[in-house]
Amino acid sequence: MTSSSPAIVDDKAPHIIPFILSHLSTHQKKYPETPFIIGLNGIQGAGKTTLVNILYDVLTKEHGLETLVLSIDDLYLTRADQEKLARENEGNKLVRFRGEPGR
Fold first, then answer.
1. Which of 1, 59, 71, 83 would bridge with 65, disulfide CB 3.0–4.6 Å?
2. Which residues contact 98 (CB under 8 A, 6 or more apart)?
3. Global confidence as pTM
4. Which of 5, 67, 64 lies closest to 38 in space, CA to CA?
């Protein structure tokens, strides 16, 4: 274990994997053509990215599952687009910046 992988996160993955696999099995039986989507949230610094990376590695490498990871950060506007949106909506404080953490 490295300093970038807190023990508390490593302790959770062995419990989460069986939970995911159990729900995936149920989902695949009921909806064989539909993707199984997992959402994970938490405050900044909670270890979401670390946990997701562990889950991704285990699910793809050890269980042969086709897995995709998407972060909300992947969905933000580019800086130029965000600045343009702010200019076009000067009176709207909600679109001045990317947004506050957790909003």
1. 59
2. 76, 77, 82
3. 0.66
4. 67
> What are the start-end ranges of the H helices in the chain?
7-30, 48-57, 79-88
* Cβ-proximal residues to 4 (8 Å cutoff; 6+ apart), any chain: 50
Query: How many other C-beta atoms lie within 10 A of the C-beta of residue 51?
Result: 20
| Token pair listed for 50 | 């670390």
Please state the rounded mean pLDDT for residues 13-26.
Answer: 95
- Under DSSP, the state recorded for 58 is I
Write the DSSP symbol of residue 90. Answer: T
CB atoms within 10 A of CB 12: 16
